[in-house]
C-alpha cells in the first residue's frame, strides 16, 4: 500500500475516460476514496489523474495502463493496484466500445465481433474475478457495470456490440445471485441515451450549432446525460443501505434523444 499510506478505500474505474469514468472517479475521491484508473492511453490517464490530484490532493489517483482485451494485462494491473493501494472496495466496469456506424452481421468479421466483445464483456469477467476474493474476505464490496440501450435491445448494426452488453447484464445478475448474500452489492446501470462526453457531446453540439438549435445549446442537460449527474448515481448505488440494494437501474435525459429510440 505504498501509495495509499492513509489507507483510504479504493475504487477501480475500469475504462476511465473523460466522460463517465472521470466523473465517477472524481465523485468517489471527493468522498474520501483513492482511485485506480484503468485504460489504454497513457496521456489521457495522466491528464485525468493529474487533474484529480490537483483538485483533491496528492496520492488520490493512480493510473494503470491496461488493454482489457488482454487477460494478462488485467491481472497484472489488479495485482499492482492491490500491492500499491490495497484491496479494491468498489469496482466500476465502465469500458464499452462499438462501431460509430453500425454494420450488419454479414459485414461484421469474427475479429471485430471478438474485439468488441472482449472489451464489453470479457474485461468485466476478468476484472470481477480479480476483486471478488478481497470483497468476500471483507464481506463488503460494490461492483457496478455500465450498460447501454444495446444491453436490452438488439438492433440492426449492433451485432459486434449488443451481445457483449447483453452478456454484461447477465454477468451482473449472476454475480449478484452468487455473492450478494456474502456482502457484495452488484448493480447494472443502463445509460439509456447519449452522454455529454468528449465524442458524443461535441458531435451533438456541432450538429445543433449547424442547425441553429439555440434552445438545445442553452439546455444541453435536458437532452444529453451529464457525466457528473451520472456519477451521483454510482455513488448512490454504492451507499445504499443493505436492506434496499438496487440490482438494475436505468437513466435517461428529460427530453430523450435518438439512442433511447433504438
Ligand atoms: N457515451 C455515450 O453516449 C454512452 C451512451 C450509453 C452508454 N454508454 C456506456 O458508457 C460507458 C463509457 O462511458 P463514456 O462514454 O462516458 O466513456 P469514458 O468514461 O469517457 O471512457 C471510457 C474509456 O474506456 C476505455 N477503453 C475502451 N476500450 C478499452 C480497452 N480495450 N482497454 C482499456 N480501456 C478501454 C477508453 O480509453 P482508452 O481508449 O484510452 O483505452 C475510454 O476512454 C460504456 O460502457 C458505454 O457503453 C455510453
From TrEMBL:
Query: Which Pfam families does the record cross-reference, listed alphabetically?
Result: adh_short
For this protein, the record's InterPro entries field holds: NAD(P)-bd_dom_sf, SDR_fam
Name the UniProt record assigns to this protein: Putative short-chain type dehydrogenase
- Which lineage? Eukaryota, Fungi, Dikarya, Ascomycota, Pezizomycotina
Amino acid at each position: 500500500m505504498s501509495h495509499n499510506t492513509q489507507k483510504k478505500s479504493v475504487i477501480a474505474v475500469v475504462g476511465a475516460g473523460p466522460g463517465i469514468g472521470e466523473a465517477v472517479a472524481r465523485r468517489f475521491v471527493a468522498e474520501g476514496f483513492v482511485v485506480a484508473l484503468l485504460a489504454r492511453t497513457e496521456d489521457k490517464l495522466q491528464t485525468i489523474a493529474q487533474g484529480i490530484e490537483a483538485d483533491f490532493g496528492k496520492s488520490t489517483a493512480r493510473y494503470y495502463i491496461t488493454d482489457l482485451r488482454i487477460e494478462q494485462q488485467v491481472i497484472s494491473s489488479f495485482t499492482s493496484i492491490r500491492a500499491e493501494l490495497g484491496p479494491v472496495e468498489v469496482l466500476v466496469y465502465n469500458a464499452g466500445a462499438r462501431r460509430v456506424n453500425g454494420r450488419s452481421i454479414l459485414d461484421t468479421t469474427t475479429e471485430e465481433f471478438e474485439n468488441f466483445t472482449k472489451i464489453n464483456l470479457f474485461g468485466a469477467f476478468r476484472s470481477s474475478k480479480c476483486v471478488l476474493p478481497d470483497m468476500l474476505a471483507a464481506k463488503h464490496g460494490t461492483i457496478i457495470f455500465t450498460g447501454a440501450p444495446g444491453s436490452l435491445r438488439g438492433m440492426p448494426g449492433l451485432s459486434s456490440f449488443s451481445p457483449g452488453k447483453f452478456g454484461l447484464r447477465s454477468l451482473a445478475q449472476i454475480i449478484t445471485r452468487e455473492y450478494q448474500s456474502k456482502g457484495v452489492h452488484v448493480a447494472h446501470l443502463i445509460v439509456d441515451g447519449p452522454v455529454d462526453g468528449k465524442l458524443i457531446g461535441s458531435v451533438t453540439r456541432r450538429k445543433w450549432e449547424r442547425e441553429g438549435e439555440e434552445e438545445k445549446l442553452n439546455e444541453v442537460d435536458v437532452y444529453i446525460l451529464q457525466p457528473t449527474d451520472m456519477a451521483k448515481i454510482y455513488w448512490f448505488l454504492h451507499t445504499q443501505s443493505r436492506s434496499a440494494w438496487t440490482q438494475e437501474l436505468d437513466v435517461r435525459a428529460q427530453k430523450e434523444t435518438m439512442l433511447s429510440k433504438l
